[in-house]
Amino acid sequence: MSYDIRFGVKVAGAEDVYAVIGEPEYNSPTYNNADIFVKSMDWDYEQGKWYPMTDVLPKIERGIHELTFNSEAYISLEPDNGWGGVTSARRALKSIIDWFSDDWSSGWKGGWNADIPIECIYMSW
Fold first, then answer.
1. 2-43 pLDDT, tens digit each
2. Roughly what angle, to the nearest 10 degrees, separates helices 34-41 and 53-69?
3. Other C-beta atoms lying within 10 Å of the C-beta of residue 10
């Protein structure tokens, strides 16, 4: 099984309804990375819940930093079955950041969603 990372905006007039506006390139990382994500980001997120990107981005950046510069601290959390691990967790987090970068033509700034303020964008796992 895997996550389904999506970016969305709230639908006006509808409670708890979000319109999906995009997804990162690596949008379905394995659940086997859950412990690595939680520990590296210091965030016990809830799957299926929508979180404001302004709250999420610092956590994602922390995770990338941890998995890049302190990867040895997370090796023990890698699954025994070989599905997932530090490298794929870092790749998933980097993919989220990339969607918001100027360099990724299919992402937020390179697509038809560029006029949506980041304060209005949410992410769900």
1. 899 999 999 999 999 999 999 999 999 999 999 999 999 999
2. 100
3. 16
Q: Which two tokens stand for residue 115?
A: 């006029």
Would you give the DSSP letter of residue 33?
A: G
Which of 76, 1, 60 has the alpha carbon at shortest distance from 31?
1
Angle, helix 34-41 to helix 86-99, in steps of 10 degrees: 60
Across the beta sheet with 122-124, what order do the strands follow?
Answer: 18-22, 6-10, 122-124, 50-52
Tokens found for residue 18:
């979000």
Tell me the whole-structure pTM to 2 decimals. 0.90
Sign of CA dihedral 39, 80, 87, 109: negative
| DSSP-assigned beta bridge partners for residue 122 | 8, 52
Residues 57, 86: contact at Cβ < 8 Å?
no
In the block, tokens 């090796």 appear at 75
β-pair partners for 51: 123
Q: What is the mean pLDDT of residues 72-90?
A: 92
Alpha-carbon torsion, ordered 6, 81, 59, 114, to 10 deg = -30
